[in-house]
Amino acid sequence: MALTYAESAALMGDASFRDRVKVSCLHYADYISGEGASVPAHNTRYKWAQATFINPDAAAGQVTPTVVMHAAVQDQGAAIYYAK
Questions:
Q1: Residue 72 and residue 23: Cα distance in Å, rounded?
Q2: Which contacts qualify for 60-66: CB closer than 8 Å, 24 or more apart?
Q3: Which end of the chain is more exposed for a tag (fewer CB within 10 A), N or C?
Q4: Distance (Å) of CA 62 to CA 18, 34, 47, 68, 80
Q5: Quick one: pLDDT at residue 81?
């Protein structure tokens, strides 16, 4: 069942959840840094990756609302877990 608006808002402000998003952003930034320059739109993603390394809290703040609104997060809330 989807989170209520209040639950979604609370999850967006949850420090533990936001920290998990921050770590995910850093992992993705590392991945982007390792991809070839010939990959389409690499320069744009590379700029985001560099900004994420400089200020991971800001990156997490930007993407957390979108992450919370994802259907899987709406179904599982803070209990969501992604294993590689």
A1: 18
A2: 60/18, 60/19, 60/21, 60/22, 60/25, 61/18, 63/21, 63/25, 64/12, 64/17, 64/18, 64/21, 65/12
A3: C
A4: 10, 23, 15, 11, 19
A5: 80
Model-level pTM greater than 0.70?
Answer: yes
Is residue 2 within 8 Å of residue 77, measured between CB atoms?
A: no
Specify the DSSP element, H or E, that contains 10. Answer: helix 5-13
Question: What is the domain partition of the chain in residue ranges?
Answer: 5-79
Least confidently predicted of 1-5, 11-15, 23-27, 38-42:
1-5
Give the C-alpha separation, 11 to 78, whole Å: 7
